[in-house]
Design brief:
The complex is a heterodimer of chains A (314) and B (183).
Chain A (H helix, E strand, L loop, with lengths): L1 H35 L9 H10 L9 H19 L19 H22 L2 H32 L4 H11 L3 H4 L1 H15 L10 H4 L9 H26 L11 H27 L6 H9 L1 H14 L1
Chain B lengths: L1 E4 L2 E4 H12 L1 E6 L8 H5 L10 E3 L8 E5 L4 H13 L5 E5 L1 H5 L21 E3 L6 H16 L5 H7 L1 H11 L11
Parallel strand pairs in B: 3-4, 3-5, 5-6, 6-7
Antiparallel strand pairs in B: 1-2
Helix pairs in contact in B: 1-5
The chains are: A mainly alpha (314), B alpha/beta (183).
């Protein structure tokens, strides 16, 4: 009974942490972008205000069943993937159900939200949505190839598909995968540019061209729910990368509150540093066309992924 | 439980909602006339409207504020009405430049409308030809004050007086083929 209570509490804590951190990261990016453009920019908690406003709007749009389901689908996918991810290394507080899922399962689950979104956007009948969905799915086909290649490299290297085991192995040997298999890391990093959809890969939203693409018929509470789902999902992606390539939140196996807090701070520093890579790249890049984006992913990143696999084999 | 600020009493839930609405305005800039050229400087580095929580929205579904920048031709009025009716409550309209107030320099033109608030309800007028970005931002601040005091309910007025508005709209738009919205 006590076990179950701790698990439920851990799940709630994980969700709250992922949501808060994801939203604040979004706010930091908006603020930093403004500072780079020599503006003052919004306050860092602007995303929370936006969310509160979106949730207090009336929403009287009805395009059919899938249109209503799409935001729910997205948030379910985000929460599920988050629950299957070990947040801290060997910690009692956020174990969730991470021991039951592995990398291959997560690979499948990560697409779930986008597919739900695609179905929902398809039902709205807006031509912008349809173009946005085709672009989004093409881009996904693009960046999944180097991403999967780098994951296969890791699986070969450690002969396991468990994220927990990969994390522990890195901590035991003391070398991050970032350095022990740099090619796989680079391939995954390039795939991350596509995952986060900052410039030059913001071909899905494309505000000036597609009127925000798939979400163009979603307003008010629906948009708010999607924003929440995206924040949680970006925290999930960052933590997954940190777990796989940067040894998670370090080697802290103590269950005390202070040790947990230190581990969380380490995790936040690592995820923020990683998050800045696509953001920095976005500041200096214009937008690619769809076929350019796919060509980008299938050229050097995929080649690097292939070298990574060979590197892991020898 | 109520909160009193500037002699206005509001229930606490409404106060918080209005605070959020005030600080997060998604603007759909309907660039009809020459006024559209004043929007980029308002949004970018020089005047930076984003520090007030104002940011652009791409579609009417996501927008809170409809910004009508300049004169409205009789043809574009139809599109403006459709866009306005697609927006979700609470929604606000800012009319921009002399042309939306009394027709401005197009007061006797055969194909522009003269007063915008005969067709859709307007919350804030910004006058001038052209109003500079400072004036635009001051107009937004005025709208924020109205929202905070809970007085920005012109969208409700539109629903209540729909027949009057429809009558005026149909005088201008001869081929009235528009979908009916049931809010």
């Amino acid at each position: 009974m006590e076990d179950l209570a701790i698990k439920i509490l851990g799940a709630v804590l994980t969700t709250i942490m992922a949501f808060t951190v994801g939203m604040f990261y979004g706010g930091f990016v908006r603020k930093l972008t403004a500072r780079v453009q020599n503006r003052r920019g919004p306050v860092v908690y602007q995303n929370f205000i936006d969310l509160l406003k979106l949730q207090s709007k009336t929403t009287n749009i009805a395009h059919g069943f899938m249109h209503h389901m799409a935001p729910i689908w997205m948030i379910i996918a985000s929460l599920t993937t988050l629950m299957f991810l070990p947040i801290l290394n060997g910690n009692l507080w956020f174990p969730n159900i991470s021991f039951h899922g592995d990398l291959i399962f997560l690979l499948y689950m990560m697409v779930f939200g986008s597919l739900g979104m695609a179905l929902g956007a398809g039902q709205t009948g807006n031509p912008n949505s349809a173009i946005g969905v085709t672009r989004g799915l093409s881009q996904m086909v693009g960046f999944e190839i180097p991403f999967v290649m780098s994951l296969i490299a890791l699986m070969i290297q450690y002969k396991t598909t468990s994220i927990q085991d990969i994390m522990i192995a890195q901590n035991e040997s003391g070398i991050w995968n970032m350095f022990s298999n740099p090619f796989a890391f680079l391939a995954a990093l390039f795939a991350m540019f596509g995952m986060f959809r900052y410039s030059p890969f913001d071909i899905v939203g494309a505000p000036a061209e597609l009127a925000s693409g798939p979400v163009s018929e979603f307003g008010g509470k629906y948009l708010g729910t999607m924003m929440t789902a995206n924040s949680i999902f970006s925290f999930f992606k960052l933590t997954l990368y940190v777990n796989l390539f940067m040894a998670g939140a370090g080697n802290i196996n103590d269950v005390g509150i202070v040790a947990t807090l230190i581990a969380i701070v380490i995790l936040l520093i690592k995820t923020f540093a990683l998050y800045m890579v696509p953001v920095f790249y976005g500041w200096v890049s214009p937008r690619y066309r769809t076929e350019q984006a796919i060509r980008y992913f299938w050229a050097w990143p995929s080649a690097l992924g292939l070298i990574g696999i060979v590197w892991a084999l020898i | 439980m109520t909160i009193t600020e500037n002699n206005i009493k509001q229930p606490i839930g409404e106060y918080i909602q209005n605070w959020a609405r005030k600080h997060s305005l998604f603007v759909l800039a309907y660039g009809t006339g020459c006024g559209a050229i004043e929007i980029p400087p308002t949004m970018t580095s020089r005047y930076d409207a984003e520090r007030f929580g104002i940011r652009g929205a791409a579609t009417p579904r996501q927008a809170d504020v409809l910004l009508i920048t300049g004169y409205l031709a009789t043809k574009s009025l139809k599109r403006v009405i459709r866009v306005y009716e697609q927006m979700q409550d609470p929604k606000y309209v800012i009319a921009f430049g002399s042309c939306t107030i009394n027709g401005g320099m197009y007061y006797d033109s055969y194909n522009t409308i003269n007063a915008l608030d005969r067709y859709i309800p307007v919350d804030v007028y910004i006058n001038g030809c052209m109003p500079r970005p400072e004036a635009v931002i001051s107009g937004f601040v005025e709208l924020q004050k109205q929202i905070a005091s809970g007085n920005a309910y012109n969208a409700t007025k539109y629903k209540e007086n729909l027949e009057w508005y429809r009558e005026n709209q149909k005088k201008i738009i001869k081929n009235w083929r528009m979908p009916d919205y049931n809010w």
